[in-house]
Amino acid sequence: MDDDNFPFTSSSPLKNNEGELPVNVRDDFCYINIALHSTGVWGYEEARSFLQHTLPRVQLQLAIIFMLTQSLHLLLRRFHLPRLVSEIMAGIILGPTILGQIPKIQGTLFPPEGEVYLDLLSKIGYIFFIFLSGVKMDPRTVLRTGVKAWSIGVLAAMTPITAGMILTQKNQDKINKYRWPAYKSIIGIQSLFPFPVIASLLVDLKIMNSELGRLALASALISDFVSNFIATFISYGRLGQMGFAGSIMLHSTFLSSCLILFILFVGRPLCLWIIQKTPEGKPISRFHVVLMSLLVLVVVLLTDNVGLNYQYGPFLLGLAVPDGPPLGATLVDRLETLIAGLLAPLLVTCCGMKVNLVELFDLQFIAGVWLVLLVCFLMKLAAIFLPALVCRVPIRDSAALAFTMSAQGIVHMSFYYYNSVNQTFDGETFSMLTMSVLLQAATSNLIVKSLYDYSRMYTGYQKRDIQHTSPKSELRVLSCAHRLDDVLAAKNILEASFPTKESPLAIYALHLVELIGRTHPQLIDHQLGQKSSSGNRTQKMIEILYSFEQQYSGVVIVQQFTAMSLRKFMHHDICTLAFNKLASLIILPFHRKWNHQGKMIMDSSSLRTINSSVLDLAPCSVSILVDRHKARRNPLSTYNVGVAFFGGNDDREALAYGRRMAQSPSVNLTVTRFVPWDIYVGDSQWDAVLDAEILKDTRMQGANQDNIVYREERVKDGAETALLVHAMEEAFDLIMVGRRHNDDTPQLLGLSEWNDLPELGPIGDMLSAPDLSTPVSVLVVQHQTLKNK
Question: Are 520 and 196 in contact (CB under 8 A)?
Answer without folding.
Answer: no
